[in-house]
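Schema walk-through. Below, the input block comes first and the output block second. Nothing else is stored per chain. Lengths vary across the set, and this one has 358 residues.
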Amino acid sequence: MVVVIGGGVAGLASGLALAMRRIDVCVIERHGRPGQESSTHNSGVIHAGLYHPPDSLKTRLCHEGRARLYSFCRQHGVPHVRCGKLIVAARGEEAELEAVARSAAANGVSLEPVDARALKEREPHVAAATALWSTDTGWIDADAYVRTLAAVLQGHGGVILNGTPVVGLEGQTDGTVDVVTPRERIRATAVINAAGLGADAVSELAGGDTFHIYPCRGEYAELAVSARRLVHGLVYPVPHHSGHGLGVHLTKTIGGAVWIGPTIRYQEDKADYERDRLPLDAFLEPTRKLLPDITLGDLRLGASGIRAKLHPATERFADFLIRRDSRIPALVHVAGIDSPGLTASLAIGEYVAALLEV
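--- output ---
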């Protein structure tokens, strides 16, 4: 029996990869249903893999995972669209746009240049001097994806225990680990630590390697229904080295909503989605940089999410942590799965299965 701690997309995909190899799998999720944290509190973008170092797991698994994800969605009827995205630059930002093109090329991703005329045809209300077009980018209904992953996993014999916190991890002399919950004790030949924001606490509970998860909140606004017509697809600004993330961008969902965000703010509390939320007018300037005609009356407050980052605010990059624990070989960490974790999830599952040599 392999026990997966955490029912987000990384945990479910890892469980599915093992179940499809006819391994007994039990996913333990502390919430009432899977995917209630980072997996569904995000923009739902299927990423092309443009920005991270070429030799990183984030880039490798994003590319592999994107292809697997599109295939999975087609096979199982998960709502998604391969819509592409525009990366737009204002006058004076041409150098930043060229840097995006170089980064993409180093990662094996082809971007198409978009001149002012073509830009107006695609997004007539977006202000930009020039742009790049990513054909491989898309959008997925993350809630539907989580539900489908869970159903397919169970269809292959996997078990999901919802509403079940882990209160103990006890190593045994034969190399197995007892996973202790308030209701049961499960003997596991391997434990996959895919606990998201709680992955560092799980490792500490087991007496495993020390690492730190930094919670980082992202907040969204939305366009009012009357203003949704101003955006046709995914529109990103060029990223700037002065901050984290890719900047506040526009995401049009299949249902027609237009999300604005996410912002980025490191915080201490891993469960605080609402305290000290940004006021609506904080979204006006970054939105008007892309959509000059927007007024405050066109905006509505949206959702928020918390990323599980492996680096503090003083650093810019940390790769996914996917490896066996150095102290407890039966413990496999799947930690720090921030963006592009949703896109990479199915590839993460295969990577974990390979680590367990099954």
